[in-house]
């Protein structure tokens, strides 16, 4: 309950006059509030456009967004907070702050994010909010912009990701098996058995193999059974990317045939997976002056 203390000359007067004053007295604070609010509001630049796409070869989310043109025109120093969420996991998997100074060219802003699990495995969503450097107030968050994973596709059978077959020794890899539409995955396992983290909802299963090593076998096999006990499998090769050849040496005896030798580092890849080396030929002509 708000108390109104009326000055003596008004308090004594007739009812009509007093009501009028009370309304004014109530409106004034509201008006002040509104003015303060709209001054702060004009310092807030919510995201006006947000587009998220994916580059599956690089397993990268590409984010493009913009704010109003007036912010560009004012060459505003502005911070953005960007969040990435995986649908199914309620938690935000990545938060990043980005400080930029907008320029008059008015081009949209760009940011990219490399995913540690194949983007096919589940849907990813991104949202952004902003704060002018001169202000303390964050804008509202944009809506989440979602890039669907293949768990939302119409496919009937399970699929295993990543499709990449060569994995670098020492790295960590997360694999997933996605069931067909409305289908439950019964089991998803790795052979040889290694330490793994598992994530499960009924349609998507994830396995993380840490610190891949060729000693545990240069082939990793994964097996995925759907609810009808049908088996899907994939094999991965663990190795080292080929080094620059060492002790490279070429010689010729007759100036027609050149014999080159080099030593190559161990890659732990064999047979048809052996690295291929290409010899590139450059001719030198000696000019005599
Ligand atoms: C979003 O970005 C992608 C990749 O740059 C582009 O192909 C697509 O047309 C964009 N979508 C919209 C609605 O602008
Ligand atoms: C970005 O700006 C904020 C203040 O708006 C500051 O606290 C933060 O340290 C800055 N971050 C970077 C990476 O410069
Ligand atoms: C999925 O299937 C339904 C009906 O079978 C079809 O209407 C819809 O367009 C399909 N969606 C996609 C993404 O293929
Ligand atoms: C990864 O495995 C190699 C050999 O298998 C071991 O030498 C190394 O310490 C391991 N690294 C980590 C971080 O566990």
TrEMBL record:
Question: What species is given as this protein's source?
Answer: Cyanistes caeruleus
Does this entry carry the keyword Signal?
yes
Task: Report the residue ranges that make up the Leukemia inhibitory factor receptor D2 domain in this protein.
Answer: 49-145
Q: What keywords are assigned to this protein?
A: Signal
**Which InterPro entries does this entry report, sorted A to Z?**
FN3_sf (IPR036116), Ig-like_fold (IPR013783), LIF-R-like_Ig-like (IPR048497), LIFR_D2 (IPR040817)
Q: Which residues form the signal peptide?
A: 1-35
Q: What's the protein here called? A: Oncostatin M receptor
Identify the residues that the record assigns to the Leukemia inhibitory factor receptor-like Ig-like domain, covering every copy.
160-239
State the encoding gene.
Answer: OSMR
């Amino acid at each position: 309950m708000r108390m109104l203390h009326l000055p003596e000359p008004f308090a004594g007067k007739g009812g009509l006059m007093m009501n009028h004053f009370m309304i004014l007295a109530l409106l004034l604070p509201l008006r002040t509030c509104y003015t303060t609010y709209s001054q702060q509001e004009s310092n807030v630049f919510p995201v006006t456009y947000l587009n998220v796409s994916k580059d599956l070869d690089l397993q990268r989310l590409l984010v493009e967004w913009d704010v109003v043109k007036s912010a560009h025109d004012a060459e505003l120093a502005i911070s953005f907070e960007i969040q990435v969420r995986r649908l199914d996991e309620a938690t935000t998997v990545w938060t990043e702050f980005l400080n930029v100074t907008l320029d008059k060219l008015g081009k949209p802003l760009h940011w990219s994010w490399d995913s540690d699990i194949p983007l096919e495995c589940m849907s990813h969503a991104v949202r952004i909010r902003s704060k002018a450097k001169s202000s303390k107030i964050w804008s509202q968050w944009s809506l989440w912009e979602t890039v669907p994973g293949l768990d939302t596709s119409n496919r009937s059978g399970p699929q295993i990701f990543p499709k990449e077959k060569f994995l670098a020794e020492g790295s960590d890899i997360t694999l997933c098996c996605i069931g067909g539409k409305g289908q439950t995955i019964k089991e998803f396992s790795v052979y040889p058995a290694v330490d793994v983290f598992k994530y499960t909802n009924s349609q998507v299963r994830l396995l993380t193999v840490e610190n891949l090593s060729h000693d545990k076998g240069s082939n990793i096999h994964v097996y995925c059974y759907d609810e009808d006990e049908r088996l899907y499998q994939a094999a991965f090769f663990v190795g080292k990317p080929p080094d620059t050849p060492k002790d490279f040496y070429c010689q010729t005896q007759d100036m027609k045939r050149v014999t080159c030798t080099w030593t190559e580092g161990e890659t732990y890849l064999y047979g048809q997976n052996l690295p291929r080396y290409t010899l590139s030929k450059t001719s030198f002509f000696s000019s005599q002056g």
